[in-house]
């Protein structure tokens, strides 16, 4: 142990700790300064950034023994607090730079050090600083962070004031479409928005720390599990295996009726088999994380190794064994039957192109690893806190497995540092629930980044083959599709994501005749979970890249070809229904001048010769809002002495559920002249908030927005007097009137028939047209995205900062999907960098958004959703730009330099 005196945020502090302890741990655990977050714990992400004697350091890799006595340390808490925000914090909130907020304290501290050195930096200098100091962000696409740093510098130089930059609602005005700052922003920029690991430090001192015994192979029979030695290790309270689980030990995957499996194949703790790397085999519960970790090593698991089927083609091979005995590896099939038979039709068409394509196991890479805790409350209810973005859904999926009545299980969402969809699946809820139920103690579990990456769901790879035919006028007449979805070993939502092939291959075009066949395949690679876009990034990639191939064959411009074919009145979507609105021609018209200018610039640069080639690509971006069919959401509104309280379970990944709820409630309650400050939000706690459905499928703005609107309308109706004015709170109480009103909304939709893919799945869609400009180094294959321009139609904008933020962040994840991100190699793809997360240097600073607001008949105040559209097909546009630059078309992602180089060389 060593004793150190540190000057932390100007105050002298004494600490005693192991010399090897990281400074991050000292700050967080000894000094309870939880504004400093730990993401990777390995020096890769910058969430733990602090200033040490004037220098930016990553505190997770700074050992206490290396910190000099009386070192001056500045954490986010020392920069400013909720009541005295520093200009950097003000700027960060004002421009919407804090989405989930997990990276925010690290960036703010880093910016403080930069501006201490240089109060007038250029944007390039800011970018270089964040790159040098390894500050990563997964939500914002970085541009808003540079905007915030530049604005902070201006504030500090006295060129603008707080009043200039902080949105203020004019009296009586609408919040809709404004730049109002989300309510949670202030806590995020001050580091006081407590994520799961921060809350973990506020739990009872005698809680149990859980660590998992996890599978080290991808497919095996379990012969025995011996916990005897582990149970005797210091500090160990219990070691639990499947035998201790009070319930069925199965997570309910909610399989479709036509799924050949029963949906109950995923264990909470493995019993007979290991299905994938990282599967949980036993839980060690101990007084400290270190004791639990040490005991994990002592659990002996005897296995019989089985062949590992690491991709759909491998699991579909004739001689492959059934991964779940009794259920075929191809466990779900679906298709598209729209219009005439395409086979004879293709032969009559002037232009036909076809190709294979592949979009892989994109890792989500949130900066906050999975974390949660559970306990039994005073009423005997099992309370589970996690990053769940589907509280009621997850309770229904895990209650039987844990062995608790559904009514006695309440899940609560902790402030969440991004999920991008992996938390559409339950992860640790079952484990925490079992441990708390069995021990009756508070139990706490946090994953490190290795566990987060290797053992949470991933995007489901699609292996696709598409054939597209156009007549002599260039009108698309027929599409044939075939796709296999590798969903890993667990079926949950695998059937649903496979049906997205029917819905989004060829989406955006009024193709009258489509035939397709898709299938879901069980494999031993990472289980498939939702990922932003959910099936559309796979499907649209295949069709949008094929459109450019067709354009080349026809000798026409690809954007003109798109313009000719996009939905017009009378056209039907691939599912055979009317598009919600016709807006794509308008979007292309907005992009066209930018596109022509970009083409001219690229031609000019190419004319100079050299190894660098420049290209321009486009793609349509489309996704639907909602869970297929008559999806429903619930909310409530209650009149109080001080205003109105709104309750819903609009789970927040970081997208801005608080601001969405506030804006829609405020808009609806305008007749009673309420201010935003008088609206209180109670969100995401099953003890208090109703089932609003999961925050997936970009459904919440439409579904929960509408339910919130209806709840507020119901309240207003009860308050309304005969003369058209409204009763006050006192009058309502005096009249004995109910103060709390529920509101529900159901999408007027029908789920498609899986066999034909025909139906009307979504109440609204989101549309975009993206223009990408790239530079390709033909000697190395390295691609640089120089500029992105998007024309987006997401209906009425609810909050402009939220919408801009969603679009920047989604597009940049698309750069990752196109060029670098992967989770395939279990040895290599285990860190943020190894998985190819885009850093600021990989992302253009030049990203332009052009909005077109076509009101949606089904959306609240005409709004559609936004979350997933920007990641539905940006990668197709980037790949099309590489094609334009070099003539090499990469159809299997990611287009890493070596692949691009090989494709360019193959052309020669
Ligand atoms: N919005 C708006 N105006 C519109 C449409 C949407 O202001 N016309 C706002 C909404 O109020 C909401 C946000 O945009 O705050 C996204 O709305 P919506 O599309 O309805 O999506 P959800 O609220 O259901 O959020 C889920 C969606 C999905 S499915 C994933 S995955 C996702 C995402 O949003 N993961 C995210 N965005 C994310 N953003 C962050 N920072 N982190 C994630 O993990
Ligand atoms: Fe320290 Fe990632 S760099 S937590
Ligand atoms: Fe940067 Fe979420 S806001 S990681």
Automatic annotation (TrEMBL):
Cited SMART domains: Ald_Xan_dh_C
Claim: Metal-binding is one of the keywords in the record: yes
InterPro entries noted in UniProt: 2Fe-2S-bd (IPR002888), 2Fe-2S-bd_dom_sf (IPR036884), 2Fe-2S_ferredoxin-like_sf (IPR036010), 2Fe-2S_ferredoxin-type (IPR001041), 2Fe2S_fd_BS (IPR006058), Ald_Oxase/Xan_DH_a/b (IPR000674), Ald_Oxase/Xan_DH_a/b_sf (IPR036856), Ald_Oxase/xanthine_DH-like (IPR016208)
Domain 2Fe-2S ferredoxin-type intervals: 2-79
Assigned EC number: 1.2.99.7
Gene3D superfamilies linked to this entry: 3.10.20.30, [2Fe-2S]-binding domain, Aldehyde oxidase/xanthine dehydrogenase, a/b hammerhead, Aldehyde oxidase/xanthine dehydrogenase, molybdopterin binding domain
Keyword Signal: no
Domain of life according to the entry: Bacteria
Name of the top EC class for this enzyme: oxidoreductase
Gene Ontology MF annotations: 2 iron, 2 sulfur cluster binding; aldehyde dehydrogenase (FAD-independent) activity; iron ion binding
Record key words, sorted: Iron, Metal-binding, Molybdenum, Oxidoreductase
NCBIfam families: pterin_aldehy
Family: Belongs to the xanthine dehydrogenase family.
Name recorded for this polypeptide: Aldehyde oxidoreductase
Protein source organism: Clostridium magnum DSM 2767
